[in-house]
Each structure stands twice: as structure tokens, then as C-alpha cells.
Amino acid sequence: MIDIIHVSKTYPKQQVKAVDDVSLHIDSGEFFGLLGPNGAGKTTLIRILVTLLLPTSGEVQINNQVLTRKRADLKKKLSIITQENSLRYDMTLDQVMEWQARLYHIPLAVMRERREELLDFCGLTEHRKKTVRKLSGGMKRKLMLCRALLTDPEILILDEPTIGLDPASRRQMWDLLRRLNEKGLTVLMTTHYIEEAQSLCQRVALINKGKVVRLDTPAELISQLGPVAVDEFDGSQTRSSFFPTKEEALAYAESITNKFNMRSTTLEDVFLDIVGSGLEVV
Ligand SMILES: Nc1ncnc2c1ncn2[C@@H]1O[C@H](COP(=O)(O)OP(=O)(O)OP(=O)(O)O)[C@@H](O)[C@H]1O
């Protein structure tokens, strides 16, 4: 499990407070989402989680032990997939995995066995002799997933795992992540695709200006806003209103003259409501 305890980060030169007193507890086996607009502090927070950045104050604990750069035993439990494609284009898939094994001192025999399993799991076995430059965007993402799993982490951290992927590749990645989570892997991810968070995450934290402004299950966040939405177009823009029941939504819809559409509220509505409302902190 991960405990983020009163973590703040100020970038000294710019004096930007990117993360502002964030505390979060993420259980073992949880699928957890960090959502927030551009510049909210999500990437900074996950870089702190994997000790790529040091917090200005506060600490991170893994299984109740303080994480520092020197704690190789704790760092081994975490694996990160960053937003950037960090693969070498001249390497084959097999070579990418071998390279990773050497970096992490994984014995060759162990690497071979895991590589077979992981390439098969991600549906990449038939492409193993190709160089990275010949892979599609979706395949590259899957290879980054295989590489991140080679060290057999307890916690997988993903920064925008499906950015730039087409809908089919995105759903394939969702299935892989779901299956990994079902096997017990703790998953923490950031995403701008709110329907992705709604579909995958057991809990989400909404972050803005470095602070956690909401933390709950997607279903609870939707229920708090009102599970039935009425969109009305007033001739220049669409406005959404939210209601606890269909009856109340219908009563409202009948009282207006604008064209309307009634639908289920989504996590995206919650996100837009919070981000657009000046954000009161919980
Ligand atoms: N290396 C850096 N030096 C100075 N300021 C930075 C640095 N990295 C990020 N920031 C600033 O910190 C704040 C948080 O940025 P961060 O990248 O963590 O946000 P984010 O939520 O991940 O954004 P996005 O969704 O766009 O990836 C922003 O104001 C950003 O400009």
C-alpha cells in the first residue's frame, strides 16, 4: 500500500507550488486514478512517488516504510510507465526486455521465462524480432507495459497510459490493466480520459492547483452531483443540470422551453463541475 503524507513540492526557480499538502492512502490491490486539468500537479506527484523528484516537505510510505532514494528494496516494489516513449527504436522487443533485465540485475534464465509470459500476455510474441520503430503506437505502449512488469512490481504507476491511442488499442490496454489488477497488482494512473477512469478506477482523486479537491469512488462522486443530467441548448451554449431522480429531471425538463437531452451523469460531468466551479477544497 502507498501512503502519501502531507506531500508538497515547490519548484525552486519558478516558485511554483506544484503539489500542495497532498495526503492519500492507496490500498494494496486498488485501482486508483489521479485526475486533474493540465498543470494540476499529477505528474509531479507520481515523480515524487518513484523518487525521481524529492518532495519539499512530507513523505511517501510503501507498506508503512518511508520511501527514500536509498531504499532499493522499496523502490523495487514500484514500476512506472511515463508519458514519454522511452524505448530505443533500434532494439527488437527481445532486446528491450534483455536490456531492462541487465539494468535491474535480473538473472538471464528468470528474464527469459518472464519475457515469454509477458510478451504472450500482451499479445506481442509474434512481433518479438521487430525493431521498435516498426511497431504501432499501441504496440509500443504494450511493450512499455511488458518492460515495466519484468521487475515483478507490486505497484504499477502509469502516467497517461493510453494517450494518443486509437479506441481499439485503448480498450486493449484497459483489458490488460484490468487483468493485472485482478491478479493483485496495485495500479495508480493519471489520465485525461475521464471515461477511462470511470471504467477502470475503484477510486479517483481529483486534483487541481496541487490540491486534492475530491476523493471517492466514481459512483459516489456521480451520485453526489446527481445521477440524472439534463443538457439544454440555449441557442449559444449547452448547460447541464443534475438531479437525484429521473422524475425531478423530467419535471425540470418540462418547465424549460429550450431543447433538451436527458442522460446519465458521468464522471466527466463531475470533473467539469468541480474544475469550473472555482473548486472548494474538501
Ligand atoms: N520541472 C519543472 N520546473 C518548474 N515547474 C514545473 C516543472 N514541472 C512542472 N512544473 C509546474 O508544476 C505545475 C504542475 O505540473 P505537472 O506537470 O505536475 O502537472 P500535471 O497535472 O501532470 O499536468 P498535465 O496534465 O499537463 O501533464 C505546473 O504549474 C507546471 O508548470
UniProtKB/TrEMBL annotation:
Residues 2-234 form the ABC transporter domain. One of its GO terms (molecular function) is ATP binding. InterPro entries: AAA+_ATPase (IPR003593), ABC_transporter-like_ATP-bd (IPR003439), ABC_transporter-like_CS (IPR017871), ABC_transporter_ATP-binding (IPR050763), P-loop_NTPase (IPR027417). Keywords: ATP-binding, Nucleotide-binding, Transport. It comes from Bianquea renquensis. It comes from the Bacteria. This is ABC transporter ATP-binding protein. It holds the Pfam family ABC_tran. SUPFAM superfamilies: P-loop containing nucleoside triphosphate hydrolases. The keyword Nucleotide-binding applies. Gene3D superfamilies: P-loop containing nucleotide triphosphate hydrolases. Belongs to the ABC transporter superfamily.
